[in-house]
Amino acid sequence: MSEALDSTYRNNINLTSNLLTVWKSKNDKARSVPLTARAKGILESRQLSNPERPFPYKLWQVENVWKWLREKMHLEGDKEYVPHSLRHTCASRLVNAGVDLYVVKEWLGHSSIKVTERYAHLSPVKLVQAVKALEP
After folding, report:
1. Predicted TM-score (pTM) of this structure
2. Of the residues 2, 59, 113, 135, which has the fewest C-beta atoms closer than 10 A?
3. DSSP β-bridge partners for residue 13
4. Taking Cα atoms as reference points, which of 79, 15, 78, 21 lies closest to residue 47?
5. Which residues pair with 14 in a beta bridge?
6. Domain ranges of the chain
7. Cβ-contact 114, 102 below 8 angstroms
8. What is the widest separation between alpha-carbon atoms in the chain?
9. What whole-number distance in Å separates Cα of residue 97 and Cα of residue 78?
10. pLDDT confidence tier of residue 45, bands split at 50, 70 and 90
11. Which of 36-45, 75-84, 104-113 has the highest mean pLDDT?
12. Burial class (CB in 10 A: 0-12, 13-18, 19+), 94
């Protein structure tokens, strides 16, 4: 979450090349992630109201809103419904769409493929592709 909150249009977001660059991640490695058309549209519209930062909020503000949302959805007791679960959703969707695990690893900035392998079981598509590779 801090990667998003710390991002600025000047240093991290390139709307021309459709890339979000994280210069210092949790594992101290820089990485660039392509923006989906939807994400780019959101960042462009947010830039109109704040040309410096797309998310001009403090961590405590985001945590308060998340707490409020959990209460509204009656999920106060669900310890797994945290902002980090958004990353899990992203990884799951990528894997289910047949995206290679090494690409998912880079996208999410995992330090090792072992971390990403947690999502490998989600993709029956890979098994179907393997069968096709063995067919004449």
Report:
1. 0.75
2. 135
3. 20
4. 15
5. 19
6. 1-75, 84-136
7. no
8. 58
9. 27
10. very high
11. 36-45
12. buried
Structure tokens at 83: 């902002």
Rounded CA separation 97/107 (Å): 14
Mean pLDDT over all residues of the chain? Answer: 88
| pLDDT on residue 119 | 80
> pLDDT digits over 92-125, tens only?
889 888 899 999 998 888 888 998 888 877 667 7
Which uninterrupted H or E stretch holds 21? Answer: strand 19-22
Query: Six-digit token pair at 47?
Result: 């830039």
Give residue 8's Cα distance to chain centre.
17
Q: Which of 66, 21, 69, 68 is nearest to 43 (CA)?
A: 21
